[in-house]
Amino acid sequence: MSMEITNNYSNYAANYVDNAKKPDSKSAAEVKTNTSTNSKDKVQAYYEQLCKKFPQINFNTNGGVLSSNSSRVTVNLSYDCLKKMANDPEFAKEIEWNLSGEVAANSMVYGWAQRDGVVLGGRTITYDANGNRQSSCGGMRTANTGNGNNNTDKIQKKYKEEEERLLKARKKREEKEKFAEKVWC
Predict the structure, then answer these.
(1) For residue 147, is pLDDT > 60?
(2) 3 state DSSP class of 135
(3) pLDDT at 152 (0 to 100)
(4) Structural domain boundaries in the chain
(5) How high does pLDDT run on average in the chain?
(6) Is residue 46 exposed (0-12), middle (13-18) or buried (19+ Cβ within 10 Å)?
(7) How far is residue 85's CA from residue 131's CA, in Å, rounded to a whole number?
(8) pTM of the predicted model, to two decimals?
(9) How far apart are CA 59 and CA 56, in angstroms?
């Protein structure tokens, strides 16, 4: 069983489109190009302003992910996020507030790693189109220097002492158990 549903609105819309005056395609293309150019100019101007405001940050807006190092902070900023920042002052204010702490955060992360005997391979900071921030880093523990001055040596010494103490306590407990078995048997 088939059923056909029609309404007058669809006929009205079809007739309106057929009878409407169509704009000159050249002028429509110019308007589109001008709007696109103005938008790109606005984003570019905002990008330049952002770079001047945060000269210690290298901004990557070309896609992909570039990592930071201990001396230079790289923020991977989505182009869509940059565009949104250029057009929405409240959004830009929020992201800029987050960006203002990136250099200090980078220094802290590298400082903590060095203190703990870790060599960081890099740190990535990424802002997606909605301004969500994600940061990650990877590293590896270095060999002990043996000088006893770094925190890694102290931690390892503490663990070794604790392990030895537990081993002695275990042996003592086993000896008491053996003695108790001899006495009771």
Answers:
(1) no
(2) strand
(3) 65
(4) 24-142, 143-185
(5) 77
(6) middle
(7) 9
(8) 0.55
(9) 10
| Angle subtended at Cα 78 by Cα 96 and Cα 95, rounded to the nearest 5 degrees | 15
Could you tell me whether strands 118-127 and 57-60 are parallel, antiparallel, or unpaired per DSSP bridges? unpaired
CA angle 107, 112, 113 (to 5 degrees): 100
Separation CA 71–CA 32 (nearest Å)? 43
Left, alpha or beta for 148 (phi > 0: left; psi -120 to 50: alpha)? left
Q: What is the DSSP letter of 68?
A: B
Q: Which of 81-95, 101-115, 137-151, 153-167 has the lowest mean pLDDT?
A: 137-151
E strands, the chain, are 57-60, 73-77, 118-127, 133-141
Would you state the structure tokens that stand for residue 144, as one six-digit string?
């002990």
∠ Cα 113 56 37 (to 5°): 130
Band of pLDDT at residue 38, cut at 50, 70 and 90: low
Q: Alpha-carbon Rg of the chain, whole angstroms?
A: 33
Residue 167's alpha-carbon distances to 41, 66, 164, 174, in angstroms, are: 71, 48, 5, 11
pLDDT the model gives residue 36: 54
* HSE value, Cβ hemisphere, 13 Å, CA-based, for 157: 10
